[in-house]
Design goal:
CATH superfamily of the largest domain in chain A: P-loop containing nucleotide triphosphate hydrolases
Oligomer: heterodimer
Distance between the termini of chain A: 41 Å
CATH superfamily of chain B: MetI-like
Shape of chain B: flat
Largest interface: A-B, 24 and 22 residues
CATH topology of chain B: MetI-like fold
CATH class of chain B: Mainly Alpha
CATH architecture of chain B: Orthogonal Bundle
Structural class of chain B: mainly alpha
């Protein structure tokens, strides 16, 4: 399996807002090429801010970030599906290619493939309002992957979904990741989700946002539904929960 | 046919019937209040006089509306691109809006030195503001995350405007258009009243004034009916346009849940 992912290096990143609130303090983090890392922490710990700084959508007050800089090399999935309501699913997925100046025919073909890749073949002509919450999120993931990014950043993408959709999307996301092997950074406040998905979990605490610990999840891939009920999974969740508890007390 | 059409239709017929009945029962002379049947007859018999006037008023209204769409829309885009331009110009747009058109009309008529042109300017003045303010609101009401997405993919200001801000502003613009359509007609009629003449060709407002001088009250009513019909037609046309453009995606154009 070839790894197409790109490494990310975060060095001493701090973020202070104009009103004096310290969102992040001294964050350093190395993410290997093709690695799946979760940022786990309570709300207000700055994990979204960190993700936006990695994406280049926000600036750090201090420190530096190394990431793939080419256009389309970074994909971003927001908390909400963030689709354009006036455009069909296919047109939404085409957007990054359109902005990159890719020709119409190629755009169509690649967007169609990306939709099929998330299990939405045949829904290209549907408008977002005609799709369920889970399907909209799938379109959003297809859009993020259509440029074949080397880094995929996800900001609690499944937080608003029901548990059934969420589990299915977790499984499908892992399958996509194993096939493409992009570097994945996944923000969540769910211990269970982070353990199921990641190779490494970075636990953060709030006020100011900082990294308190990093834990490896040893379980091998592919991880299927059966993994959710295994003793290994339960043990990992307990361990991560304990660290999260410490982080919240800190 | 559904209740939305039938209900007001029945009410309208009932009111007209009651009106006709009252005029006959109390033997009200036509120069005080003509009945609807007489008004309809006048509409037919005076059609050769009223039709050209209807056309003049309609033309001024539509030209003013078109100018309002172009100027209001362009200004809104310009304001959304530059904060400084907006801060500098917007207060003056408000001043134009809040000053009663009846008060400025005589000035405009003096300056424009051409009645048709001054009517057009007056109608445009009252029509452009709703389009301007609504479109600005729409251009600003863009999903923040979508803006981030466009930034992530390196879309500049121009492509963000074309592919994101303009489509997002469309429902707001269409809301403004519906208001402006009615206002353009009001502006055209009011300005003609103030001018006291219809210029090269006379509009419906002048027909009303003229018929008033001659005590041809049924013709006044006939002209009034034509103005109302024009207003309704403009409203329906803009509603239809709005429906056609938004029905696939915008909440406002969706059918009520079954």
């Amino acid at each position: 399996m070839s790894i197409s992912g790109a490494p990310v290096r975060v060095r001493g990143v701090s973020k202070q807002y104009g009103n004096g609130v310290e969102a992040l303090r001294g964050i350093s983090l190395d993410i290997g090429a093709g690695e799946f890392v979760s940022l786990l922490g309570p709300s207000g710990c700055g994990k979204t801010t960190l993700l936006r700084i990695i994406a280049g959508l926000a600036s750090a007050t201090a420190g530096s970030v190394e990431r793939p800089v080419g256009r389309g090399e970074t994909g971003f999935v927001f908390q909400e599906p963030t689709l354009m309501p006036w455009a069909t699913a296919l047109a939404n997925v085409e957007l990054p290619l359109k902005l990159a100046g890719v020709g119409r025919a190629e755009r169509r073909a690649r967007a169609g493939e990306a939709l099929a890749g998330v299990g939405l073949a045949g829904f290209g002509n549907s408008y977002p309002r005609e799709l369920s919450g889970g399907m909209k999120m799938r379109v959003s993931i297809a859009r993020a992957l259509v440029t074949e990014p080397r880094l995929l950043l996800m900001d609690e993408p499944f937080a608003a979904l029901d548990e059934i959709s969420r589990y299915r999307l977790n499984t499908d996301l892992l399958a996509l990741w194993q096939r493409r092997r992009f570097t994945a950074v996944f923000v969540t406040h769910s211990v269970f989700e982070s353990v199921f998905l990641s190779q490494r979990i970075v636990v953060m605490s709030a006020r100011p946002g900082r990294i308190t610990s990093a834990l490896d999840v040893e379980a091998s891939y592919p991880r299927e539904e059966a993994f959710r009920t295994s003793a290994e999974y339960a043990a990992a969740c307990r361990r991560v929960s304990a660290h999260l508890g410490e982080a919240m007390a800190a | 046919m559904n209740a939305r059409i039938i209900a007001p239709l029945i009410l309208g017929v009932l009111v007209l019937a009651a009106w006709e009945e009252a005029v006959r029962a109390f033997a009200i002379p036509p120069y005080v209040l003509p009945g609807p049947i007489l008004i309809a007859r006048t509409l037919v018999s005076d059609w050769s006089i009223l039709a050209p006037s209807l056309w003049v008023t309609l033309a001024i209204t539509l030209e003013a509306l078109a100018a309002a769409v172009v100027v209001g829309g362009l200004l809104a885009v310009l304001f959304s691109l530059s904060r400084w331009i907006e801060l500098s110009f917007f207060p003056y747009a408000i001043i134009l809006q809040v000053t009663p058109i009846v008060a400025i009309a005589p000035l405009i008529i003096v300056w424009a030195n051409d009645v048709d042109l001054s009517l057009l300017i007056c109608a445009w003045l009252v029509a452009f503001f709703p389009i301007l303010s609504n479109t600005i609101l729409g251009l600003r009401s863009v999903d923040r995350n979508l803006l981030s997405l466009f930034e992530l993919y390196g879309a500049g200001r121009w492509r963000t405007l074309v592919h994101l801000r303009l489509p997002a502003a469309l429902p707001y613009f269409l809301g403004g258009l519906r208001i402006s359509g009615g206002l353009a007609l009001i502006g055209a009629v009011v300005a003609e009243f103030v001018a006291g003449t219809g210029g090269n060709a006379s509009g419906l407002a002048w027909r009303i004034l003229e018929a008033g001088y001659q005590l041809k009250v049924p013709r006044m009513f006939a002209a009034l009916a034509l103005i109302s019909a024009t207003g309704i037609a403009i409203f329906l046309a803009s509603t239809l346009l709005s429906h056609l453009l938004l029905r696939r995606w915008h909440e406002s154009a969706l059918d009520a849940p079954e």
